[in-house]
Write a structure and sequence with these properties.
The complex is a heterodimer of chains A (about 240) and B (about 250). Chain A is α+β, with helices and mostly antiparallel strands and about 240 residues long. Helices cover about 50% and strands about 15% of the residues of chain A. Chain A has a five-stranded antiparallel β-sheet, with helices on both faces. In chain A, helix 3 runs antiparallel to helix 6, helix 3 crosses helix 9 and helix 8 crosses helix 10. Chain A is globular and about 50 Å long. Chain A starts with 15 loop residues before the first helix and ends in a 10-residue tail after the last helix. Chain B has about 250 residues and is α+β, with helices and mostly antiparallel strands. A five-stranded antiparallel β-sheet of chain B has the order 2-1-5-4-3. In chain B, strand 1 and strand 2 form a beta hairpin. The chains are: A alpha+beta (about 240), B alpha+beta (about 250).
Chain lengths: ~240, ~250
Amino acid sequence: MTASPVSPVPTGPTGPLLAALREQGGTSTVCAWLMAALPTIDGAALTVFTAGSRIVVATAGIGGDQAEDLQITVGEGPCLDAVRSAQPVLADDLADAAARQRWPRYAPQAVAAGFPAAFAFPVLLDGEVIAVMNLFRDTPGPLSRDEQTETLLYTAAAAALLTDDVTAGGSETGARLDPSVAHLQEATGIVMVQAGVDADAALHLIRRYAFDHARPPADIVVDILARDLRFGPTP
Amino acid sequence: MTTPSSPDPAERLAAAFVTLADTLRTDFDVIDLMRRLAGHCVDLLDVAGAGAMIAGPDGKLELAASSDDTMRALEQYELDIDAGPCLSAYHHNDITEVRDLDHPEQHWTDLAARARTHGYAAVHAIPMRREDQIIGVLNLYSTAPGPLSLVDQQRGQALADVATIATLQHRTLAAHATHTGQLQTAFTTRLIIEQAKGILTERHSITSNQAFDLIRRYARHHQLKIADLAHDITTGTRTLPHPAQTHRKPHRPR
């Protein structure tokens, strides 16, 4: 094995938030903790963006998988804008005219899905967007300045936590993922074969099935892995 | 300097936050951060000049950034005479204002006179602190007398907070060396390995551990990188034989 270019995260006295998040389970729990820190927020999701793919690495509450699926389907939304602009996108009210003009397909569907306010904060590493922290609320209204500041603390911590995952993963086998996140990808591979579709379409089938049956995607994944649920060939 | 800025003031402020919070860059530099902080203050607050002083390892304040040369001279003068609102804010860990430089309440008449000749009418010094740690002071000069408006006070404090957090965070992560490309490759690699495992378990009716073993063995045998092989499996450009056709799996009673 050649020397890993990734050096370990220095231990010792670190920022209290980052230290606490590391202790509480790192990336997989960051959304739950952020949600706990922001009483007005009903959902959070952290999505990593790579050159060719994207992966939701943590979710809590409402919005996460559904917003992600919606944005892939319609190709627009606050999260995608945050990736492109490297700036936060604050959609206080997705039902208002400005939002509907900016995201003609995303906005009405997001409102219908139950999250009429969505906020997307880029997570930067080395000046580039590596991920987006998404916040969702089931009622419209702005994110207060304190909440924005708090979110920024968490997004900065998230960048560090994601680099932890790279360090913790093997040099050949990639970054560490929460088991539930890894299982969703494995289930995607299974559905790719069963339905004869590519990865994006397979992921969409799984998520849509979950929404249609009002069940969490994680439950559907368990059924797919156990072969209790199969997806037939997609015509 | 022009940056793409949103017409929405809330988004512009949030954008300023994000640029200040970006501490994990390899070229991150506290002086540069403070320069950006000063720039954002002049841009977003109703002040004419802004500057930042940062405490060195010995706890003594040093000039870090100023929005212009006049500010630089005034701040340097304060440091030279070791007195003034900025130093007071630092030592007392509290916002210190001279709301009317024509009538400085304290003993800073000389400094006040200098500031007046440059057209400044009021000074507001905001400590940069996080919990019990104070790292420096953000100094704001305005051309109209009076206190900072409530909105500006909150915005100034919020910007100072983020810069403080960024500085503290950078200090703890200074030795961090993961780059964007490495991070993205690591996540993509893991993603496609999981997908490839799923494909093989379905195709060959094997467990995911057996699927991963198959990938690993095949990669080693054909001198492929696991990531490249997994990619070929997910794109369908390479199909792997059933493990029973290549290796006899030893029977392991449980």
